[in-house]
Records
---
Amino acid sequence: MNSQATTHTVKRKGRTRATRGAMLGLLLLLVCLLPLTTDNPYWLHIFILTLIYIIVSSSFRFVSTSGQLPLAHAAFMGVGAYVAGMASTLLGWPAWVTIPLGAVLAALTGALTAYPFARLRALYYALASLFLGMAIIYAIIAPRDWTGGRPGLSGIPALFPDTREVFYYLCLALTVLSLLALYRFEHSRIGTTLKAIAQSHMVAGSVGINEVFYRILAVGVGCFFAGLAGAIYAHYNTVLSYTSFNLMATLWIVIYVLVGGIGSFAGPIIGTALLVIVPEVFRELKAFVPYVSAGILLLVVYLMPQGLISLPLLVKSWFRDRADRKAIHVK
Amino acid sequence: MELIVGTVTNMLISSSMFILVALGLAFIFNMMGILNLAHGTIYMIGGYVTYAFAVWVGLNSWAALLVSTAIFALFGVFLEKFCFRPFVGNFDAAVLVCVGITVVLQNIVNNMLGTQVMAVPHFIRGIFRAGLVSVSYERMLTFAIGGVLTAVIILFVRETALGQRMQAITQNREAALLQGINVNRLQSLACAIGCALAAVAGSLMGAYTNLSPFMGDDMLATILMLVILAGAGSTGGIVIVGAILGSMNAILPVLLTGDYAQAIYVVIVVIILLFRPEGFFGHEA
């Protein structure tokens, strides 16, 4: 009886894994075909931005699995963007050098600042990192001659100035690679260790986990991908302004993650796609775009506390409840 | 001399305004554990509502200030009932709600009035002169109102029965409930006071400088620093830390150029926070 049950579950697991793989493949194919569906370069622009922000919000969620809410994340994206932008405008380095450089330097600054911050936890960590983000932004805009100050840094060479399609596929490739890397990290021993630290740093410490090291590692990896996204953004947008990386920008990343569902890997992807793309449908009514985002946000908070990812479960349980009620009624 | 007098008045004014807005944030944070990220926006809208009543409706500035304070006290009650109370103990959801409110309100103001330069009409005119010192009455008034309101609130919290019940909730919610304290009603009261204070500060600053849809963002960052540095559960600490931050905010720009001053200011706060995460006067780590 018992063994039968086990084989049954194994079989079911195998089937879901196969269907899951097929669905992911189908989704990837659809995303690949996306540029063919529209002639409008504006939509392509939106899709590229969506991909860039998917990297940022997924890496935000990766850091948050270690129990730290990194409210300086947009600022680290800014570090990557400004490093890439300054390396190409001031030093004239090619994008193939500046993009990895931006990512690595963002990871380094992230890891270096993570060391003193490892003594803070929970809300205190979140707020201290929020102030760290502000400090980074002011440090970026203060040396006006190098970074362009408040008006912004302009004149960064675009990676593919002629076609957006090629850039889209480059972004897609980088996004898929980043997501694969983050997924592998999360489902490895490191990811499990991070979750253990988030649940109880004391228990984790008592079984010999080096809490400080793993928390720095989580921030370093997260900032690497944030910096990567920032560097791509710099070479896509060609103009950088500190407003893309300040407190409000970080709060928007938090919103993407929470609306999608912070508890699941797909959460940030769904949240970002929804909140970047859907408001654009209403862009004819330009003034209404923020209200659409805010509306989605409030709807999710009041109806789906676990985020959009919990929607199928909620619908399923609603139908089951209704069936139950009906059954009782018939009886 | 001019510079010294100017800096000192700036110190006093920014300190008193920071304290006034931060008291509201601290009340809500201490009693409900909710970090009201919409507090800066309420401060901003408070100024605009006072402007609307003073200029569009044509009321006296003082009457407009009173009306807007009353409106925001009611708004605080609404906020507590529908936006904070359902999410006590759910940090993520509370953040989402507050950001949602901020986005909506800020965009309404920005879309309607964002490009216009406007200021709340002066509450009082004239300049006080004594020898080399000359200060406008407006500045003195702003500081005076800030100081008096802060004193009243602190006396209220420390001396009256209602205030002591609020402190009891801050110390232990469940125990306060068991003692028969009506926690929900007192939370409403705290939110009403907090929002009203933010609206007063916004109106005063809207008369002293210009109104802007984004003036709440800087204020939010400052009051978050202030409340965390003061430590959870301390009202007296807010006054002291508020005076320190206000002074730094006024003195650093005199010594350094704009953005360097801001950078150093924030870095100092981060370093303090790294060594004393529970704040100067907090009672929990």
---
Amino acid sequence: MIDQTVIQELMGIVGEDNVLHNKADLQTYEYDAYLEKSLPDVVVFVKSAQEVAAVVKLANRQDIPFVARGRATNLSGGVIATRHGIIIELARMDRVLEIDVENQRMVVEPAVYNLEVSSAIDNLGYYYAPDPASGKACSIGGNVGEDAGGPLCFKYGVTSNHVLGMEVVLPDGEITWLGGKALDTPGLDLTGVFVGSEGTLGIATKVVLRIMHKPEAVKTMLAVYDSIDDASNSVSAIVSQKMVPATLEMMDNLVIQAVEQSMAAGYPLDAAAVLLIELDGLKDGMEEMADKIVEICKENNVREIKVATCEAERAALWKGRKGAFGAIARLSPNYMVADGCVPRTKLPETLRKCNEIGDKYGLRTANVFHAGDGNLHPLILFDSRNPEDKEKVLKAAMEMLQVCADMGGTVSGEHGVGIEKAEAMYMVYNKKDLLAQEWVKDAWDPKDLANPGKILPQRLIKREETHVS
Amino acid sequence: MSPKTESLTSDLAGIVGEVAVEENPQVTVAGKSPAVRVRPKSVDEVGKVLAFANDHGLGVIPTGSGTKLETGNPPEKFDVLLDLTGLDQIVEYDAENLTIAAQAGVRVKDLVELVGKDGLFFPADPSFPGEATIGGVVATSDNGPKRFQHGNLRDVVLGVKVVLPNGELVKFGGRTIKNVSGYDVTKMMIGSMGILGVIVEATFRLLPQPQREDVLVHAFPRLTDAAKLSGEVLDSVLVPSSLELISSAARRLLKGVTPDFAQGEYLLVVGLEGHPNAVARQEKGLTSMCASLAPNRTALVVGGDYVAEGKKPSEREVACEIHESHETCNCQTVTAQATVESLWNEIYNLERTAKEAGYPVAAKVAVPLSIVWEMAQAAEKSAAANSVEIAYKISAGNGILNLYLKGDNENILAVLEDLRTLAEKREGSLVLKSSPVFNGGFETWGDPQGAYVPLIKATKAKFDPNGILNVGRYMGRV
């Protein structure tokens, strides 16, 4: 528990009304979208970088851990205050500060919703590419923390490819800029290492985003298959024919069933997989490419393929994918989203193995995945009212990550490490690799106060020893 | 030979073998020469050499072909030149999954050729592709015009293996496009100029080769018109892969590719890639846009596949496609000796060509996109005022101005100071890329004061506590 005087001091910084410290209030802040809980000592609502800095300086002086929190959609426990302390609630820093079309940049505060960014520039003919499925609910600050992905990433890259600079409050409370509107800021790419650092290196208070001109044309197709292998082979064949679709999304039978129960997207209930393909770019040549894709799908035993001819049809084809996670609730009271990534051609084998793991534990596994970049999301269905289930789910998820690692992939594609996967880091890195990562954390946050206990498995070195012998 | 050099030679020969150690090599960095050049043949040997240097506090500068060795402040110590060209193996090439892992000493050109055989394409286009090694390209984050479409090194490198100063081999990242397992140290290694560790291997994302690649060249009598055109293109649905402006002085350095345009004009070089219909449509659109600002000055360099169709490049007349007949236009097609490849190669090698033509200093200005034109005008003005000759190219889609300067040192310094001040005022920077003449009289990276400078120092102290790698050469003399 932290001292009353600290609470008083926090009230002095942000105002009495902007500090929560009653247990009942704090309970709202003890969880995110992962399965664990931990109660913070105090929650402060901040409105500016200066307030964040003052709170962090206080935390630093008193050695109190702090966690930055945005919209709390995190799937790996990233904003759970595992060591209690202060939650710095950024929800009120939600302004779009600048739209700079001429320089193809936008500056926003951290709590701006992902979708809000594209909406704000839609009428100017621009958009922001990283498009996590939770775009309506998640904020840019969280996207920066997790290096969020989304369906468009196969062609356009993830958050870190679109964040060019930030104003950040460092773990000692200093405010600094990393990067900016221009490219190639001299010095180490600290922007690059900050993105995806899950709030463990400081708190972003302004973010400079790259915005892009909207493509002239989009062509969306939905292909239905009787086997996942045929769907996967289609993806490989499309890429080998020199085409780089913006999106290649796949869903398996269980997801199809859930989606159909929930919203009737028109997917056949007995299909093994549906593949959503979207081309974007200039309209010239697009019809020809679409025809070629239809041809490729046919060669790979597609059962049926629909090509959207207007925006309404496009929205209909996307509806099932956008609502897939939500629809899973039709099948089971709870589910856990696993997130791994493998080289694309290993997807069918990886999926088979993940399903076998599910079977072994008597758990159903539904699959939604970004087929272009090999990023899979096995959704493990369970019932949290059954305590044994939760344990089984965690074990199954870990085994699935091991499969991804064994296939030459990695244990987190876009959902972060948080507390969920800290130990899974050993599946892809050895102790020496992780020590070097710990040096990064040490250089930024020698007192280990910024969102401690995340990303790295239990601290490898004592604080006074900083190098491997 | 000093006794120190003698024992150093024999100690290092014990690690890498006698033939891999050269005493007193003919290499200087800001006037300093190393005692030895060491050329390890394996990652293991790199580890042992670094561990030895670390134990003895030797100053080490890693290098590939040395094309960018001049970038940086003068080294505080320089005992060993660590030549990585012996690490020349492709480690893992996975054409199906569009990735390749290669050792640091593999030359860009060789990698491009290798993947080209499978219809794939390396989405980075650094300077000096004939010599530059991938280790050097990653360590210096050097990339060219096409980064406008394909991204910078930080967007195409998926993972690196690094030998730390203590001799340990570690890996960061992996081989998948999406990877958020832990800190993205890969990004920090890219462009770290060898101050944190020696990059011995990198994994890159590959792309399918574009079905077609052409280059449209248009001459503009006035820079402001080129700027206007560039702004219009950037704010359109067109998707060129690059948008380069070559100053009239720089144009004289491009040998075989300049069409018969009037002297003294600026060349806008636009790369176009993709579906043949999309490329053709953009050619048409761009020619019209250009013609409305400065008529009759478009030329087209067409891609190899067109030649493969059995037509010579010169048979393709842009004019006929865009205008009703030849009589209403003077659009021309570049002569057959210019190919898309040769044009790009001349641009990639421009820094060297400029140096050979007597421009000893190269600098790079990076600013927000629209500001780059203001920087070019300021450069012309400052150069004229200081009796300095300049040649330059602008990457308009990236906000980058590469500048080559000729004149008295004092005068060049005055121009650089002017431009750095203006660039920083405009939220940008100026970095000195090569300057044999100043010997540290001008901070390579500028002198930033933000709270991130201590972070760079702290990071360096963690990774290289004994201070052996490229000491003193980086920002803040780290």
